[in-house]
Write a structure and sequence with these properties.
The chain is mainly α. The protein has 6 helices and 3 strands; from the N terminus they run ααβααββαα. It has a single domain, classed as Winged helix-like DNA-binding domain superfamily/Winged helix DNA-binding domain (Arc Repressor Mutant, subunit A, Orthogonal Bundle). The longest helix has 31 residues.
Length: 149
């Protein structure tokens, strides 16, 4: 049992290291397009479908107030617009504008090029990544269950 706990702890340390390195790389890529990683993340999350600020914050695992600040900046720059939500008049939906879609596409293209180079250097396969993701998703589900009352 001790070995399993140690392996879990070391895996989590590796996850934090990868996440930190990925965030730093994302910040650098975003800066080349005059954006931040936070702006990129919000654009990404609302590009799939218009969402409220609260729903966006939940998806990103962030405080609603911090996402609201980013949404306000994106709106001021014409990258998103707020639309009425028929289901909740108090919380508008955030929707990507055409200009925001172009910025997001630019970010995704530069990210894909960067990530392709990085992944090619690792020798990892798509199967390797899917297996790692499956492991992480199982751990995430177990942690969610453990946190529930």
């Amino acid at each position: 049992m001790r070995e399993l706990i140690d392996d879990y702890r070391l895996l989590m340390a590796d996850v934090y290291e990868v996440a930190g390195s990925s965030r730093r790389t994302s910040e650098a890529l975003a800066a080349t397009a005059g954006q931040t990683a936070a702006r990129w993340h919000v654009l990404s999350v609302v590009s799939e479908e218009p969402l409220s600020v609260a729903a966006s914050a939940r998806r990103l695992g962030l405080a609603r107030q911090s996402v609201q600040r980013v949404v306000n900046d994106l709106r001021d720059d014409g990258l998103v617009r707020l639309q009425p939500d028929p289901g909740d008049r108090r919380a508008p939906l955030v929707e990507v504008t055409e200009r925001g879609g172009k910025v997001l596409a630019e970010l995704q293209t530069s990210s894909a090029q960067n990530r392709n180079r990085m992944l090619a250097a690792t020798g990892l396969t798509a199967t390797d990544l899917r297996q790692a993701r499956s492991t992480l998703r199982a751990l995430a589900a177990a942690l969610r269950d453990a946190a529930s009352p």
